[in-house]
Amino acid sequence: MVQLNTKIGSLELKNPVMTASGTFGYGTEYADFMDISRLGAIIVKGTTLNPRQGNPYPRMAETPSGMLNAVGLQNKGVDHFVDHIYPEVRKIQTNIIVNVSGSCIDDYVQTACIINTLDDIPAIELNISCPNVKQGGMAFGVNPDSAAQVVEAVRKAYDKTLIVKLSPNVTDITEIARAVEGAGADSVSLINTMLGMAIDAERRKPILSTITGGMSGPAVKPVALRMVWQTAKAVKIPVIGLGGICSATDAVEFLLAGASAVQIGTANFIDPSISGKVIDGIEEYLERHNFTSVQEIIGALE
Amino acid sequence: MKKYQLDLEVEDNRMVGPGVTLLTLRNDKGLPDMVGGQFAEIQVPSARVLLRRPVSIHSIDKEKSTVEFLIQVVGEGTASLAALKAGDTVNVVLPLGNGFSYRSTHVARPLLIGGGVGVAPLLFLGQELAAHAIRPVFLFGGRNEELILRKEEFMKYGSLFMTTEDGSAGEKGFVTDHSLLFDSESFDSIYACGPTPMLKAVAHWAREHETACEVSLEHRMACGIGACLCCVEDTADSGNVCVCKEGPVFNIDRLKWFN
User: Fold this and answer.
1) CATH of domain B4-96
2) Is the N or C terminus of chain B more exposed, i.e. has fewer CB atoms within 10 Å?
3) Which among B161, B155, B195 is positioned nearest to B178, based on CA atoms?
4) What is the ipTM of this complex?
């Protein structure tokens, strides 16, 4: 029997498999397909201080081995989360982590303060990397100073595990990772989506209403893997790896590159029971290679 | 309604119109309950194509445990589905979304309007209505006769009228030009599926003649279960809602089509 448990700061996970924000709803959407309490953590949809309608349709374009989205953080706001969603998701027997986004530093701080009062939310993932909103979002995450500013402000207001989700749309992601580590982040998760674009040649128009959008899926995996490897060497806090993970082998690659945990994103759309299969597959890999704990393969690239 | 992820066996897959294939899948262990207007997300057997394809449930046969899908080949994904052979296995998530709501509305004289491959869910709905001893009227439109699909099959459950743009079958023009609609009292409810301009024309006719009307929308989708928020339609009551979860069938009163 191998040990699958891992830690992100003080947050204990029963296994290293989480589901990525925006790809797994509030978890309950997937309950018909798998036992969602088996997951190490569920990161719920990006939540903002005030309700957001998101971007106009069309918000999605399929690309070879990938997809672009331009949802734009549609959500009903943090108060709706507290009143209507939290009472349901707190019953799920795993870590429920809220992804927090905002247009200005004060939005992030106020939202984090409200989430801080919820006993059964042990962590937040600070989204400073959404490419689909006009204000805030990725703008904070592409500059080390602004990234540090927002993390420092939230750190003062939030006393549980603080994960910061990083953008790949930068020249040197380790510079941003070091900045948010210095500002008090407990962990970094990467990568958010890569800025991309799709055109309908017949109509001579962009496919997305916002023209550009965030690219995800297996096509981005090599970039994500490289950035996780670089970042894990550059910071002391745990790294959570995501970007195109579709199988247990993909997940193991991220662990070998130095990730302490992984997130499954776009693959949830292709196979709604994939995250359970990834947990099983990691266990099978560890047994096959005679490891006793998942800790033995974290950063174990030879 | 509980959703399932099933490996189904291809029983038959054959062309039934220009670029349109009829895919029949079977599950020996029986099929889940589903209703007309719901859809399935079918995994595409191609390495390059990532996302499942959302496809309306065309008809079911509970005794044979088969479910049929009418699929128009428009790109790489649907071409891969059209290439499936009898005996192949395909992974399907179903049933998804909400169907047409004829049960609650005391329907006596329904009109089922379809365009192109949009006729697909209307066969399942027609079968359900027939099982309740309601004989629907089908009104289908297309550019020409060849593009009006599965006529004989529909005529088993109701009467079929057609419009074609070139006049090769039925009346020449669009569905909303058909003489059936000259007497607005003929029908107490309309159910429509097809291209958006057709649905909008039908919705305006229904609104003008105070006839209850539901339309089935087709938007670009990823997850099919309300998680990714990609397939939204802007509604009068709730803003952007997922077509996959709150639709694909909408009462026209919810839509912002009448400004």
Assistant:
1) 2.40.30.10
2) C
3) B161
4) 0.94
